Amino acid sequence: MTGEPLLSVEDLAVRFDTEDGVVHAVDGISYTVDRGQVLGLVGESGSGKSVSSMSLMGLTAGRRTTIEGRVMFEGRDLLTLPGSEVRAIRGGAISMIFQDPLSSLHPFYTIGRQLIEGVRAHQDGVSKKAARERAIEMLGLVGIPDPRGRVDAYPHEFSGGMRQRVMIAMALVNEPKLLIADEPTTALDVTVQAQILALIKRLNEELDMAVILITHDLGVVAEIADEVAVMYAGRIVEQAKPEALFEAPEHPYTWGLLRSIPRLDTPRDQELVPVAGRPPSLINRPSGCHFHTRCPYVREAHRRIDPPLEPVALGQEDHVVRCLLPHETRLELWRSLESGADAAAAGRAAGTEVTEIKA
Amino acid sequence: MRSKHLRALTLVPVLAASVAIGACGSNNASSSTSSGGTSTASSGSGSTKYASGLPASDQKKGGTLKVLSVESFQHLDPGTSYFQLDFTINFATHRALYYHKPDDSTKAIPDLADGPPQISADGKTLTVKLKSGIKYGTNDPKSPINGKEVTAADVKYAFERGLNPHIANGYESIYFPLVGGAKAKGGDIAGITTPDAHTIVFKFTKNAAATAAKALVLPLSIPVPKSVAGSMDKKNPSTYDADPTKQAFTGPYMISQYSAGKSLTLVRNPQWDGSTDSRPAYLDKMTFAIGADPNVAGQQVFASPGLLQLDTPAAPAVKKFATQKPQQITFSPLGNRWVSLNYTKPPFNNVNVRKAAIAIMDRTAMQRVRGGAAVGDVASHFLSPGIPGFDEAGGMKGEGQDYVANPSGDATVAAKYMKAAGYASGKAPGTSILMIGDNSSPAKEDALIVKDSLEKLGFKVQAKLVEHSVFYSKYCQQKAQLVKIDVCANFGWLPDFFDPYAMLYVNFSGKAIVPVNGNNPSLFNDPAVNAAMDKAATIADDTARAKAWGAIDKMLVDKAAAVPWFWDKQAGIASSNVVSVIAKWNADADLSYVSLK
Amino acid sequence: MGVLLLIISAITFLIFYALPSTDPAQLRAGRSGSPELIASIRHNLGLDKPIYVQYYRYVKGIVLHFDFGFSYQTDAPVRQQIVDRLPATISLTVGAVILWLTLAFPVGIVSAVKRRSLVDRAAMGGALLAISAPVYWLGLVALYLFSNDIGQFKIFDGAGTYVPISQNVGTWFSSLLLPWMVLAASFAAFYARLLRSSLTEVLHEDYIRTARAKGLSERTVILRHGVRAAILPLVTVLGLDIGILLGGAILTESVFNIPGIGRLAYDAIKASDYATIQGTVLFGAFFIIVANLIVDIAYAVVDPRVRY
Ligand SMILES: Nc1ncnc2c1ncn2[C@@H]1O[C@H](COP(=O)(O)OP(=O)(O)O)[C@@H](O)[C@H]1O
Ligand SMILES: [Mg+2]
């Protein structure tokens, strides 16, 4: 293992030219993923998680799409690579699974065929038979019972969880170095969710495969991520190791996310509060801090000044945040919020002004 | 009445069918030309010419003609056929007792018959002698009838089977009131006997022989050997009709192949002996492509050699030929049209009101909406050009009655007759009348002109416009309806054969008024006319007969039996290397005279 | 299916036998036919029986002997006429279908993939023209332009040249080229547009993204994954169109004088030949019903989610 990360995303920006205007879906994000590492990418719907990760492999490319920045994978910039080489990486060294396992599988082809197709697209000269064996093996690996008997079944003949396993099998068939899992459990029920996550974690460990796990649910990444990035309006607003992030989150948006997941240690009577307010328009983005329209602790200056992503405090270089509030105030606010106070109470306790946010 | 062309989709107006003598051309015996026997005998209103004369008799023999037809044939069994195009085939493949030469529809020439018909003094017996030595030809050379001589028994059987419901001839009972015919169902008829193999005697229940003799030009008199058709006639319907290749042919040609609605082929009949027949039969073979698109067919005939269109070309083709290749288009008159005026009730039970109606009618406008002179001439009386008696009734000009004289409508003359009828103002303000007309072009526009014209007399015309077939079947052929109807705007007639009786009797005799399927929509019933018709029907001599019927036609105009307004014309087109000859009695090509250059 | 045909036959029977505006017996007899003659013809055609007896006889004839009665116009058995005309109609239909699908697929695919490009705009504009042009008019224009008798450019066989395939394969083929093209033109245009919109939609599906994410070539993604799913709506329409065309492509058959079922029906209608009309209607209905069944089966073949 060299010191160089497996994937290094630098200042990635993705814009869509639409009839209504330019959508700034991803606005300059940077992160790295090391071999075998799990990066959790968290944010509410529309924050740019999917677009940013699909753009890594050029899946958002189109006449009206502008992609900027660099995506260095094993020393090559995927964004400037010729099409054929990017295709070789897609489904090969990097593969992806998607949120809705039914709609993501072709309804008219057997799962075997869809897997075989993936194998043969990347491994020249593999016979159909060998590819089929490989497909069966992978189906077994992801926990499909009786894979030999099920390989010729159609997607609609599987349950949601099983379909997602098929998707994972399909993603793993070429032993990728990086798996991008875009909300792999969102469409599944809770027990199945846990199984799928456990599977991903197991494969990550057994195959030493790096994972970018995309979710809008911070709870999901808690157990398996080595690093967590929180996205808001196309940007990373906070990034840290999960322990640090769960222990001392510093962005008001992260607080909102944390307070919207049920936890074992939250008092039973405490209400789960989603982040109040509406996600901002990505065409006419808010001035200053993009979160100011939804931040209860907003101050006049925040409407003008766009905060940079910087360490929360000296010496804490691996915990970065985009917030204009003083570090101490942030700590105090979180302390009150964590113990069940609402924003107003927390503000009073921290001695800072609070603006009511309409849901 | 024979069926006419069915023209559901084409732009050409519906043509009532019939035949034509060269209108004015009949009195200037025009020289024959080699280019299809057309001459420029002009019709009354000028611009288009009628076919007349025959090409010189030394036309090139041989060759194959391709015939295009938009319409399909209907019944090729001569016992059943009752349609212009079917007649065309019948007379190329068979010989009837009598026939018309293509250029003269006024004279019936003996064909199978050996001389003119003999009519008994009481007019109840008709005797015809047959030529001997006329032989049948069949497609199957081994057929027992092949090469056998035609006998009187075969003509007898033709008439017997006509009354068989499996054949159901449409006109036998009308023109041949045979003794024992009313009960006949296909077997022997007491009224037909064959004293010897070459004599046939018809006995009628009344004095009908003179008219029946004229009707022997119809395909019913084509011999049908019982040995061939007898077993087929037991089937319902007779299979002699559906498969005409099985017929026993006497004409110059045989139907060697037929596929209904698709194709038909005529080849020479090896048993036909030209020395017994005046038909030249130049062509060796004719292939018929049935079901052509009217627009395409016209273009094809225009652009390609060796083609002849059997039925009416589309309007654009007529125009194109008339202006660019006038020597390749011929016109022949085809029946008449008139506007009925109810003779039995006010206001038209008054002769002067009827004369006023004729006077006011804008017949020129009616002609214009149909397509002008290329489509027909404004009529001045009822017999149409080419029918014996036409000239005697005044020819194209008519007798010149003042209310007929101005085809564009004459308000002054009309007012004169309205006054004579007792309407002091010259108008009948507010009198409501019921008119039935067609609801599709151009008959609809004609009906509307009739309405407008009559309204100029002050009538309030309540117009009921219906589908063409409904016009006849539900209204203007139903006596129960006709008694309430004042005007039938679109009545037309094509006689079954070229005799004035076939044209005027059913249309204007009071005796022809029947409860259903009548053809006297005016319910015209004038004792003097009835008596004259009955008498004229019994005249056998051609000249006297034509004169008598010409006089009857004049009487009908004098008594304003209806508004005569149109004599239809049918156009025929052929390629430049085709010498087309039109049989005037059928307004269609006479295939036994057509040749290739 | 039997029941459906029975209902259709009953309805058409009612329309053509019970409520005709013209009496076939009267048509046959001519305008001056005597009442006796008409009665005799009516009796002969069985039209004097009560309507339900007539219908019973008609259905019995079909069921027991596959007998559709006799044409009033030519006295030929209706069944024989239809069987006689079928090869022409099948020839026309099959050739046209092959041609229009061959045209529609590339155009539709290119238009969907290169949406709003010049190719797309040109193709769809052309398609719109072809769809809106009446077939009859298109046929005439084609003949005036390209037929070797009346055309400006004498390239193809013209109208009235059709011969059965059994007679001469070469002539059969060359005589049908122009009709195939004319018939295919309007259909191809419609199918191209249909495929374009269907494929455009499919290309936004998640499984297309999956296919791309697998690293498949764009060609494979579009043809194997996109088009495969996008043909579903075409299958339905195609089935019905084939059914309808087998019931008779009246206008094309008329312009080009191809003696098929459509021309038979057209001629029968012109001549008020009710027995033949009824026969062609039933055949048309039969084809459409069969086409529907085939569509259902084809659906199951194309889409494994559909089961019967
Ligand atoms: N092809 C596109 N054209 C225009 N806007 C798009 C397109 N794809 C995504 N977006 C917009 O980009 C934003 C980010 O979307 P996405 O990455 O899917 O969010 P999420 O974080 O829920 O995955 C959303 O506002 C979305 O509407
Ligand atoms: Mg997403």
Question: Can you tell me about this structure?
Answer:
- The complex is a heterotrimer of chains A (359), B (597) and C (308).
- Helices cover 33% and strands 20% of the residues of chain A.
- With 359 residues, chain A is α/β, with parallel strands linked by helices.
- Chain A folds into three domains: 1-85 and 178-190 and 202-247, P-loop containing nucleotide triphosphate hydrolases (Rossmann fold, 3-Layer(aba) Sandwich), CATH 3.40.50; 94-173, no CATH class; 249-350, no CATH class.
- Chain B is of the alpha+beta class.
- The model of chain B is unreliable at 5-47 (pLDDT under 50).
- Chain C has 308 residues and is an all-alpha fold.
- Chain C folds into two domains: 2-65, no CATH class; 82-262 and 288-306, MetI-like fold.
- In chain C, 74% of the residues lie in helices and 0% in strands.
- At the A-C interface, helix 2 and helix 3 of A face helix 9 and helix 10 of C.
- Residues 16, 18, 23, 25, 43, 45-51, 282 of chain A line the site of adenosine-5'-diphosphate.
Features:
heterotrimer, A: 359 residues, alpha/beta, Rossmann fold, 3 domains, eight-stranded mixed sheet, four-stranded antiparallel sheet, 12 helices, B: 597 residues, alpha+beta, five-stranded mixed sheet, 23 strands, globular, binds adenosine-5'-diphosphate, binds magnesium ion
Question: What's the gist of this structure?
Answer:
In chain A, 33% of the residues lie in helices and 20% in strands. With 359 residues, chain A is α/β, with parallel strands linked by helices.
Structural class, judged by helices and strands of chain A?
A: alpha/beta
Termini separation of chain A (Å)?
48 Å
Major beta-sheet overview of chain A: 8 strands, mixed
Would you state the CATH class of the largest domain in chain C? Mainly Alpha
Q: How many DSSP H or I helices of chain A?
A: 12
CATH superfamily of the largest domain in chain A: P-loop containing nucleotide triphosphate hydrolases
Low-confidence stretches of chain A: none
Give the end-to-end Cα distance of chain C, rounded to a whole number of Å.
Answer: 16 Å
Report strand % of chain A: 15-25%
CATH architectural name of the largest domain in chain A: 3-Layer(aba) Sandwich
From the alpha carbons, calculate the radius of gyration of chain A and give it in angstroms: 21 Å
Low-confidence spans of chain C = none
Biggest interface in this structure? B-C, 60 and 50 residues
Mean pLDDT of chain C: 88
Shape of chain A: globular
Please report which band the strand proportion of chain C falls in: under 5%, 5-15%, 15-25%, 25-35%, 35-45% or over 45%: under 5%
CATH topology tier name of the largest domain in chain C: MetI-like fold
